[in-house]
Amino acid sequence: MGNCCGSPSTEPTPSLPGTSTQVNEVPSSKFSVSGTSDNTSNDGGLSITSSSAGNSRLSAAPASESHDEAFPEGQILPTPNLKIFSFADLKTATRNFKSDNVLGIGGFGTVFKGSVDEKTLAPCKAGTGMVVAIKKLNPESLQGFQEWQSEVNFLGRLSHPNLVKLLGYCWDDKELLLVYEFMQKGSLENHLFRRNPSIEPLSWQLRLKIAIGAARGLAFLHTSDKQVIYRDFKASNILLDGDYNAKISDFGLAKLGPSGGESHVTTRVMGTYGYAAPEYIATGHLYVKSDVYGFGVVLLEMLTGLRALDTKRPNGQQSLVDWTRPSLSSKRKLKNIMDARVEGQYSPKAAFEAAQLTLKCLGSDPKSRPSMKEVVEVLEKIEAMSGKPKESRTKHSTAHHHGHQPLPLPSPRHQRHHGTAMGVQK
Ligand SMILES: Nc1ncnc2c1ncn2[C@@H]1O[C@H](COP(=O)(O)OP(=O)(O)OP(=O)(O)O)[C@@H](O)[C@H]1O
Ligand SMILES: [Mg+2]
């Protein structure tokens, strides 16, 4: 999550941020560079002129009613279609926010497992009803409020099989909570980087499936009536359901794309160190293609099994992009950086194609990067050619990299203070 501007509204119903003041608070999980003015008109004023505008749901529609099936290509709802929960409801659903129920801790709050009735979404006893994920924001965080508001405005109105479903929210005095569909397998970050012996390493095929799902989610955002720039694409924001279908979560930083023939939006620089596009960090100019760069970084993480940024790696290897970029264009060098845990599961051609795609996404000129639609098409081709894996020779090795030139690191002012990209446990 992470939105940069807009002052807290006093309205009890979340509204689109209007005239707003700059919030100087810097969330602990993100970098944020002050000084650039933010185009606040892009913070969530989604167009209602979408062809699907007539397809709004009643706000109390049963959560089990799947609109993903009715609208496989996704849709923009005219108004957020969300259930409003009381704080007492969510206290019951999480057994008073019991620590046993914690699913994870992010930059702005803690995510709990909870139970609600499948039809009415009323809280119910653990073990009965439907499992949901409930994010409880740290009450003192003003930045968290902005993120919460952006999440409700964007995610509450966007519906697509590859975007996590926001079911409702609670705004009770100082308490801000968000209620999401539960994603059984957690985040891609957990699978790629947490060396948990009980979690099987993701196979090559599953990595492709996840990449395709996440790419479809981004493609939907970029091609929707009003382009939406996601701005916070990273492994921890890609959640996986029981079948490893990928869904993008956390729209706290999302912005509407440029209008009036502009190529970019000028905004305060915020994001996660290691994933943000260089032009955005340097100028505050945010392009739709800035998301494509972030996607390239995640692809690189999937190919290598290494974090975008890890200060525990030796000098010259801490920034994954800088370190491995020269290896992506050489078939011979590519072998050295591929994750040993998927060795034998892909053809050299498939790996090389994936590396070429990664390189294109990481292009320094945003215009040179492919669209997410093109990315989806290439990934689907790679998936098709990877259909018959060679005999698996999976190794559980962590030290599988060698032969790289040390490269300079980006400026430390963009470092995350904690979290995934730094390789530090939250
Ligand atoms: N809908 C969900 N279903 C299951 N687990 C979830 C869900 N949402 C979040 N989680 C878990 O909670 C963790 C924390 O999520 P959160 O979005 O707060 O932080 P983050 O993505 O790690 O960091 P950031 O604050 O930068 O977004 C996730 O990594 C994931 O493991
Ligand atoms: Mg997140």
From TrEMBL:
ATP binds at residue 136. It holds the Pfam family PK_Tyr_Ser-Thr. The lineage of its organism: Eukaryota, Viridiplantae, Streptophyta, Embryophyta, Tracheophyta. PROSITE patterns: PROTEIN_KINASE_ATP, PROTEIN_KINASE_DOM, PROTEIN_KINASE_ST. Residues 1-58 have a biased composition (Polar residues). Its main location: membrane. Residues 97-382 form the Protein kinase domain. Belongs to the protein kinase superfamily. This is Protein kinase domain-containing protein. Residues 395-404 have a biased composition (Basic residues). It is found in: Cell membrane. SUPFAM superfamilies: Protein kinase-like (PK-like) (SSF56112). PANTHER family: OS01G0588500 PROTEIN-RELATED (PTHR45621). Residues 1-75, 383-426 are annotated as: Disordered.
